[in-house]
Every structure is written in structure tokens, then in C-alpha cells.
Design goal:
Blueprint lengths: L7 H14 L3 E6 L4 E7 L1 H8 L4 H23 L3 E7 L8 E7 L3
Antiparallel strand pairs: 1-2, 2-4, 3-4
Length: about 100
């Protein structure tokens, strides 16, 4: 990657477009301190429900998988930023919320 460092304004749309390419319906929201990706449709969540996983198990899989994939990618692109799945839907009609923000000092 060289010395290029991706900022919030660059990473937000990049991650949103990545979500969309995987079949998620994602809305990007800029807050004063972060970029939030609100995912209202998710084929992974739908798959978990189709095979009968309970909400606790599917949340654990999403939390660990998202941090391993997206969190690592965000950290590689800008070590001053962090990623978290800040809200996991408790029922199908809710949205999950991913958040990218600066590391706290």
C-alpha cells in the first residue's frame, strides 16, 4: 500500500460499496466523530436465520467475523482508525450498525 493512509471520508464509501457488493442494503451516515453503516438487509443474517441459528449465536459469528475481516482491513488502511459492529439487530426488521472512528487517545 505504500505510504497512503485512508481517512474516514475515503473508507466510509469504500466499505459501504463493499457491503452493497455482498448483497447488503446499506445506508452510510456521517456523524461528527465517525462513519456509520446501517445495514437493513443482510444475506448473512438471513442465512443464519434460515439454518435456525439463535440470535446470540448469529451475533457472535458476526461480531468475530466482522472484526477479523473488516476491522483488520481498516487497521491496515489506517492504524489510527478502529472498526466495530456497534449494534447487532435484535429482530429481523432492525438494522445492524457498523462504525468506523478514530482510536481514542
Amino acid at each position: 500500500m505504500g505510504n497512503v493512509e485512508f481517512d474516514l471520508e475515503t473508507l466510509g464509501p469504500l466499505l459501504r460499496d463493499g457491503n452493497v457488493s455482498h448483497g447488503l442494503l446499506t445506508e452510510m451516515v456521517e456523524t461528527p466523530t465517525s462513519i456509520q453503516l446501517k445495514n437493513s438487509r443482510c444475506p448473512v443474517y438471513d442465512g443464519y436465520r434460515m439454518v435456525g441459528l439463535d440470535n446470540e449465536t448469529s451475533e457472535a459469528l458476526c461480531q468475530h467475523g466482522a472484526i477479523a475481516k473488516i476491522g483488520t482491513t481498516v487497521n491496515l488502511l489506517n492504524p489510527k482508525l478502529t472498526y466495530e459492529l456497534s449494534h447487532y439487530r435484535s429482530k429481523p426488521d432492525e438494522s445492524c450498525v457498523e462504525e468506523i472512528k478514530p482510536l481514542e487517545d
